[in-house]
Amino acid sequence: MKKQVVEKNKSIIEVNNITFSYENSNSKALDKVSLNITEGSYSCIVGHNGSGKSTLAKIIMGLLKPNSGKIKIKGLVMSPETIVEIRKNLGVVFQNPDNQFIGATVRDDIAFGLENRQVNPDMMDGIINRVSKVVGMNHLLDKEPQNLSGGQKQRVAVAGVLALESNIIIFDETTSMLDPRGKQEVKEIMVQLSKLPNKTIISITHDMEEVLSCDEVIVMRDSKFIGKYKPEVLFSQDHLIKENHLDLPFVYKLSKLINAKIPGIKPEFREAILVDEICQKHKLK
Ligand SMILES: Nc1ncnc2c1ncn2[C@@H]1O[C@H](COP(=O)(O)OP(=O)(O)O)[C@@H](O)[C@H]1O
Ligand SMILES: [Mg+2]
Q1: Minimal CA–CA distance to 41: which of 219, 244, 215?
Q2: SS3 for 47?
Q3: 50 lines ligand 1 (CB under 6 A)
Q4: CATH value of 11-241 in 3.30.1490.100, 3.30.70.1290, 3.30.565.10, 3.40.50.300
Q5: What is the pLDDT of residues 136-188, one digit of tens each?
């Protein structure tokens, strides 16, 4: 949060009036969606299941072609002519850690993406070592992916994306299938990456604690873009939370419950401050 962005408020992704329906469906998965994402920012996309979040990610990735509307990535309008160039900027890590592996070992898996991009073989070891260090997996390069924990598998997937130097990384519910430790490991890496000024991070998530640490929250509901907010602004507006079926971060929810019983305790996002306020009120240390 609160980092220096590359050029203030420059949009790296421009989604303009996109409508999309899946072939086998007569309802819209995205309905006139327009939004911009700032270069170097950390955005979360939230919304109920089926609201269109993954479809939006796939449209941005160029994996699905919109029925109408326009997408610009780094100023380039997406088209069959520009898609190869545009894809060089984009990386995605999906939800299921077991569906992302191709290589027999962690090293092979990261190398596979590099081979695909025809990276000079002499450079590969250096790249693999560097990116596996970033995600704390450099000691496990010769392991078989199936023997890794879910969190470790997702960290390898992140390393694969970093190896390709994608400067826009989309995480589509990357932590949702992980145990608490795996979740924590992957979230820490996401936050660490989001602090790098040249990386634009987009995280589709139901984890409201994570949302609290991002720069901007994009809210989707019923295939539509509802709005883009600072996290604390979103959470403090009851109607937005209710209408969009969102949850609140735990400490904030708790502080509101306490506030209903002890009026002097204000709604608060930070655990330590909430605890201090309660203690002061009750003259406890
Ligand atoms: N492959 C598909 N074929 C047909 N309909 C789909 C497909 N994938 C998603 N949908 C539909 O598109 C809508 C948006 O889905 P999705 O983008 O996956 O939502 P979210 O990621 O927010 O849960 C939903 O109504 C969903 O049922
Ligand atoms: Mg989804």
Answers
A1: 215
A2: coil
A3: yes
A4: 3.40.50.300
A5: 999 999 999 989 999 999 999 999 999 999 999 999 999 999 999 999 989 99
